[in-house]
Amino acid sequence: GKWVWLEARRLCMERVAVVGAGVVGLSTALLLSERLGPSVSVTVIADRFSPFTNSDASGASLIPFNLGKEGEQEAQQRRWFVETFQHLQDLNCSRDARPAGISLVGGAVAFKEETPLPWWKDIVFGFRQVPWNSQEARALAIPPSYKSIWFFSTYIVLCKQYLPWLMARFKEKGGRVEKRRVGKLAELLKVYDAVINCSGLGARDLAGDSTVFPVRGETVIVQAPWVKHFLIDEDGFRYMFPRADGLQLGGTKEESWSEEPDDKE
C-alpha cells in the first residue's frame, strides 16, 4: 500500500483503474481511495460484481496453508498474512464487524502424522498442539487415526457480506464503478494514469498469461447451529466452517473452468 501511495503522489496521478471486483480488487480500490484522497479518481472496472464473483463462494478462513516457494516470495506472503490478520482483528473489534461478516472462530487442524509446528503459531490466538485422546479432540469427535492436532482461533470472513461492505465503503470515499468487459489491460492506459490488475483468472486473457488456471472447488451449506468450531483435515480440502448462514462443508479440488455444480463431486 505505501509504495502505491508514494508513487501516486510523486507522479501526480489523477485517474486510477482497478480491474476486478472480487475481494482483492475491492480491497485494493478502497485502500487507494483512503490513501490518495479525493484528488485522485479511483474506478473499479469488472464484468462481474457480488454476488457473482468467485470471492462470494469462498470459505475465507485465514489460515496460510500454501506459501509457495521459499525465499523472498515466502517472506512476502508471511508479511501479507500478518498484515491481514491485524486488519481483520481491528475490524472485528469495531462496529463494522457484523455488517462486514467478520467472526473469530476456534477450531482444529488434524494430521495423521506428527507435524512440525507452523511459523504462524504465535500470530493466531491460543495455538496449542494436543493428542487425539485429549478432551478438546474428543469434543470434535476426531478419530484416533489423527496423531497431531492443532487447536487455535482465527478469523472467518463471510464474503457475501464483506464484498458489499467493501463496495459501500469504496463509494463513500468517492469511488466509481464501471460494469463492462475489458479486452486488454493496455487499452485502459489510454484513459487512466495507472491500471492495477486484480482480475484473478481474467489475467490469463487480460495480461496474456497462459500459466493462469483455475482450481475449482465445491462446498455445501447445511444448517447445524450446534457446531461452533471449524475442523480441517491435513490436506486442506476436507473441512467444516461454522458461518452466519450455516455450516460450510467441503471440499473438492479440480482443475476445471466449469462453473456448474457437479453432483458426482
Detailed description of the structure:
The protein has 265 residues and is α/β, with parallel strands linked by helices. Helix content is 27%, strand content 24%. It has seven helices and eleven strands. It has helices at 2-11, 23-36, 72-92, 97-100, 135-139, 159-172, 203-206; strands at 15-19, 41-46, 102-111, 125-130, 148-157, 176-179, 194-197, 219-222, 230-233, 239-243, 246-250. A seven-stranded mixed sheet has the order 4-5-3-9-10-11-8. The chain has a four-stranded parallel sheet with strand order 6-2-1-7, covered by helices on one side. Helix 2 (23-36) links the parallel strand 1 and strand 2 (41-46). Helix 2 (23-36) packs parallel to helix 6. It is globular, with a radius of gyration of 20 Å.
List the helices and strands and how they pair.
Elements: H1 2-11, E1 15-19, H2 23-36, E2 41-46, H3 72-92, H4 97-100, E3 102-111, E4 125-130, H5 135-139, E5 148-157, H6 159-172, E6 176-179, E7 194-197, H7 203-206, E8 219-222, E9 230-233, E10 239-243, E11 246-250
Parallel strand pairs: 1-2, 1-7, 2-6, 3-9
Antiparallel strand pairs: 3-5, 4-5, 8-11, 9-10, 10-11
Helix pairs in contact: 2-6
